[in-house]
Design brief:
Elements lengths: L4 E4 L14 E4 L59 E5 L28 H14 L3 E5 L9 H9 L6 E6 L4 H10 L4 E5 L5 H8 L4 H13 L5 E7 L8 H6 L6 E7 L16 H11 L3 E3 L8 E6 L5 E5 L12 E4 L5 E2 L9
Parallel strand pairs: 3-4, 3-12, 4-5, 5-6, 6-7, 7-8, 8-11
Antiparallel strand pairs: 1-2, 9-10, 10-11, 12-13
């Protein structure tokens, strides 16, 4: 019989009502179709019908080296034995780019501002999760840096007793000027999205200018001592697959972790399997140019396969969402900007 755990939280126009408004079944034992953003409405609940099923068998086994004795509350333990100690919080549904693999050019319908979680609600919910055993929080969007109170949110979250890591995933457009203050407010880890090193390609893909600003943000993060600075790159055949080794070259002298992500299908990105560059092919290309590439030891909950080129300061990773699934070690939970809750990034269900 499957174990069921119930996580209680609520949101109303009056704020949280001491967990009594409704219940969320906290079950993470099912995987289905995909959604690539933590914010509601940016991406479809359903994959393109031509896309392969990604999670049909991948949750069947839990890695044997997951911790057995852990102070995490039973509430964060699912029926597959996974301890969900990592919470992603979407601060906004809005974004200042229109990346072609993420959303249509005209944008999407957004939740009205009054229905987006307030700063106090975010902090209160985060405190509940952290007090139950969550030790890592990642701020996402949309684009989290466009939220005006992000510094205050970081300050409050970083002071939560038990939180070890406060991270952000950002497109980097406004990060460079905000990062010094964010670091003062307790931000400990930075992921920056960048899919091309060619400014003209960047403008084509994002439908906006800003390549130089992203590069400035990467360098600003390095200068401020973030190590590693993670750079997320979605690889698409015929667009940027010819730049894979150029990205790896960035790791030679700088503490950059390049993270190549397999192209995934969502409404608005006109996904086609011909655009997918599988992990095995990306790895072959890198090894031909950098034969000293060595596999690193991955943590059981890592979504990435991690490597390093000998004598390079940084690292190279591959996120194999399409060809080699990683559900068995997943420890992530997702709080959406409108207060809804997801237990699986690749599942359509929201609570």
């Amino acid at each position: 019989m499957m174990k069921r755990h119930v996580f209680k939280f609520a949101r109303s126009r009056m704020g949280f009502a001491d967990f009594n408004c409704f219940l969320v079944d906290f079950e993470t034992g099912s995987c289905s179709t995909s959604r690539n953003s933590d914010s509601k409405g940016l991406l479809s609940h359903q994959m393109n019908a031509s896309a392969p099923r990604m999670c049909s068998t991948s949750c069947a086994k839990v890695p044997e080296d997951l911790p057995k004795d852990n102070p995490v509350s039973d509430m964060l333990l699912d029926s597959f034995g996974r301890l969900h100690t990592y919470l992603r919080i979407s601060l906004t549904e809005r974004c200042n780019l229109r990346c072609q693999y993420c959303m249509p050019a005209e944008g999407v319908d957004l939740t009205p501002s009054p229905k987006i979680l307030s700063q106090n609600e975010i902090v209160r919910l985060a405190n509940l999760f952290v007090s139950s055993g969550v030790d890592k929080i990642r701020l996402t969007g949309g684009e989290p840096t466009i939220r005006k109170d992000i510094e205050d949110i970081c300050l409050h979250l970083s002071n939560l007793n038990g939180l070890k890591t406060l991270a952000i995933t950002t497109n980097g457009i406004t990060l460079a000027r905000k990062l010094p203050k964010l670091k003062e407010c307790g931000l400990t880890s930075v992921n920056i999205s960048l899919d091309t090193l060619v400014p003209a390609k960047f403008e084509f893909m994002t439908r906006r200018k800003g390549h130089q600003k992203v590069m400035e943000s990467i360098n600003a993060a390095i200068d401020l001592g973030y190590n590693p600075v993670k750079v997320n790159c979605v690889v698409m055949r015929g667009f940027n697959d010819d730049e894979i080794c150029d990205f790896v070259e960035l790791t030679r002298d700088k503490p950059i972790n390049i993270r190549f992500i397999e192209f995934m299908p969502f409404d608005g990105n006109v996904w086609n399997v011909k655009k997918l560059v599988p992990y095995s092919e990306m790895l072959d290309r890198v090894v031909k140019r950098f034969p000293d590439l060595k596999r690193l030891q991955d943590h059981p909950t890592d979504t990435a396969k991690n490597f390093r080129v000998d004598e390079h300061a940084g690292a190279v990773s591959f996120i194999t969402s399409m060809t080699e699934h990683f559900c068995a070690g997943c420890n992530r939970l997702r709080l959406l900007a409108d207060g809804n809750f997801k237990v699986c990034l690749f599942g359509p269900s929201e609570k």
